[in-house]
Design goal:
Number of helices: 9
Strand content: 15-25%
CATH class of the largest domain: Alpha Beta
Shape: globular
Largest sheet: 6 strands, antiparallel
Number of domains: 2
Helix content: 25-40%
Distance between the termini: 80 Å
Structural class: alpha+beta
CATH architecture of the largest domain: Alpha-Beta Complex
CATH superfamily of the largest domain: 2-enoyl-CoA Hydratase, Chain A, domain 1
Number of strands: 17
């Protein structure tokens, strides 16, 4: 019997080893094929090409075939990302991704050239200046939008529900985002607007809540996450915890079991159980969706507005030997209910469309904010 068991294990080992060798052989064949294609292009293509740029495009194509958020950064682009430009270069103030070969706006950032010009979440940028975006990588498109402060750039936009292409002429500025704004509405509602999840967001929100709580008339709060493209996971967890007494906030699941994690709230609700309304729209993504989803699942807040973007993945920046880097999706977010945010987003409890100008505190044309105020004073 032992002899047959040994033969059986040896046979299985040989099968597995044979399969691995075969799979490895297939990979090497594909690498040879790639080299042959590159050589043919170099010799036969109608125009001369830069082989180094072709290789960068091939690497980026591989990464973007995985999902819209994975991408290659050349050493120059990686260095730009790491270095503060100190006003030498300016931007438009939009968070973007790549979808179907064109640049898609995840969210315009409050009080930036893009938001003031009227760029909206969900817009597709089809032309930058006179250059077609189709065929460009995300990094190349972003690079085209960068430029000196004070210089202008023309964007051609396609918008769902609008037949004609829209043209915007936007002047670049240094983008300095104040992530937290707060105010008192109707003498009894604390209003907190969060535009991104950066390293100081939770400290700023905590300070704003403490200041607002000094007013004994406050009966409820509005947390405005519209057009917030996300940011740091750690900040999403801290900010969710401010409004929860216990329970799971979010979990991350990866291919590596060691990377699977669950994050929980600690005791202590900063607003002491007061009614909370969270405003979201299509420009609310990633960390915004974690906060809105956690508060919705625990029935701690009323979610009002429009369905959120649906970016439920974690990206890591991984440096490479050539001093470039790759942005790679390494895990996915899951809400306390166990649902994934990816491509689904968070559905509001009360669906209210946007109208007129948005996100101006006390404005008469902010349909969603007005509805929230009426609801809380109802």
């Amino acid at each position: 019997m032992k002899f047959f068991l040994k033969i059986f294990y040896l046979f299985n080992y040989l099968l597995i080893a044979n399969y691995c060798i075969s799979a490895e052989g297939d990979i090497y064949k594909k690498i040879d094929l790639f080299g042959e294609v590159l050589e043919k292009i170099n010799k036969e293509y109608v125009d001369e090409i830069d082989q180094s740029e072709s290789m960068d495009s091939a690497i980026n194509g591989l990464l973007q075939s995985l999902d819209p958020y994975s991408a290659y950064m050349s050493p120059e682009i990686f260095n730009e990302m790491q270095t503060e430009t100190s006003g030498e270069f300016g931007g438009l103030g939009i968070e973007v991704s790549m979808e179907s070969g064109v640049v898609k706006v995840i969210s315009p950032i409050d009080d930036t050239p893009a938001s003031r010009a009227g760029i909206k979440a969900g817009d597709y940028i089809v032309k930058i200046k006179d250059i077609q975006v189709q065929g460009k990588t995300l990094s190349e498109a972003v690079d085209l939008m960068r430029g000196p402060v004070g210089s202008s750039i023309e964007l051609t936009i396609r918008r769902i529900g609008v037949k004609k292409a829209l043209t915007f002429n936007i002047t670049r500025e240094v983008i300095e985002v104040q992530s937290v704004k707060a105010d008192l509405l109707e003498d009894n509602i604390g209003y907190i607007r969060l535009t991104s999840f950066n390293e100081n967001s939770s400290d700023q929100i905590e300070d704003k809540i403490k200041d607002l709580e000094k007013n004994q008339n406050i009966k409820s709060y509005i947390l405005d996450l519209r057009n917030n493209p996300g940011g740091l996971l750690s900040q999403a967890i801290k900010i969710s915890d401010f409004f929860l007494d216990n329970g799971e906030i979010v979990s991350t699941k990866s291919r590596k079991a060691s990377e699977n994690r669950k994050m929980f709230a600690k005791k202590g609700d900063l607003i002491k159980g007061k009614t909370l309304v969270v405003l979201i729209n299509y420009g609310s993504a990633s960390a915004s969706e974690i906060v809105a989803g956690a508060l919705k699942d625990h029935k701690r807040a009323i979610i009002l507005g429009e369905n959120s973007y649906g970016k439920g993945s974690v990206q890591s920046i991984i440096p490479l030997k050539n001093k470039g880097a790759i942005r790679l999706t390494v895990a996915k977010y899951y809400l306390p209910s166990g649902k994934s945010i990816s491509e689904v987003g968070v559905k509001p409890d009360i669906e209210i469309d946007e109208e007129g100008e948005k996100f101006r505190i006390k404005t008469e044309t902010d349909n969603q904010l007005n509805y929230a105020i009426k609801l809380l004073n109802g």
